[in-house]
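In the design runs reported in the main text, the only information available to the sequence generator was the tokenized backbone. The following block is the verbatim input for one such run; it is reproduced so that readers can re-run the procedure and compare outputs position by position.
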């Protein structure tokens, strides 16, 4: 216990419980004014574009992402495109390439070296803010919904979950896909705007 610390802000759920003093789970905010939603299909022919741009392919379990997307491409030929690039890009360039997909796959980090991981990061929130349905492993989804509210991510906490989720998205009607795009944007707008996260921080300060 640090005598000069009254409280600790923890950004992701998987980092709670490691001995920090008076922990508070406050996730990063998203600039929803800067990131405007794009609900129309990226391609005029309506072919879905999935994308996965990991900061770390190993920790994001990108090998599994590529494996499953390859399998589904064989099963559903000419139904979707999959864009994968493990190259790290500057923030603005990364947002630009995310904007050019219909569905964003953040990570499938079910576990790492025996430790439970799989939490959404800022890239997932930014993609959702742009109206992109986000597919990700979220081990803390129950805790999230207790602490924040309804989670606007397509949760995939196993290989089968991921396969089934992607296939379900591939087979969605335009109306169903539009609904998912709007749900993603509304989730970030409701729970991860500067205003909402700022209010959570005020509550933390008031509780000390």
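Verbatim output:
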């Amino acid at each position: 216990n640090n005598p000069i610390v009254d409280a600790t802000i923890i950004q992701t759920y998987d980092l709670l419980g490691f001995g920090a003093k008076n922990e508070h789970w406050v996730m990063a905010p998203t600039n929803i004014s800067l990131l405007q939603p794009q609900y129309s299909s990226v391609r005029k022919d309506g072919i879905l574009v999935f994308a996965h741009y990991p900061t770390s392919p190993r920790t994001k379990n990108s090998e599994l992402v590529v494996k499953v997307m390859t399998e589904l491409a064989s099963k559903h030929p000419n139904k979707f495109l999959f864009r994968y690039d493990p190259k790290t890009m500057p923030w603005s360039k990364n947002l630009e390439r995310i904007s050019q997909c219909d569905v964003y796959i953040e990570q499938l980090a079910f576990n790492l070296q025996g430790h439970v991981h799989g939490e959404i990061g800022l890239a997932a929130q930014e993609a959702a803010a742009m109206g992109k349905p986000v597919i990700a492993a979220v081990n803390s989804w129950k805790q999230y919904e207790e602490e924040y509210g309804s989670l606007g991510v397509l949760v995939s906490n196993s290989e089968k979950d991921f396969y089934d989720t992607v296939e379900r998205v591939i087979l969605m009607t335009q109306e169903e896909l539009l609904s998912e795009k709007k749900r993603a944007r509304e989730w970030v707008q409701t729970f991860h705007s500067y205003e909402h996260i700022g209010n959570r921080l005020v509550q933390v300060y008031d509780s000390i």
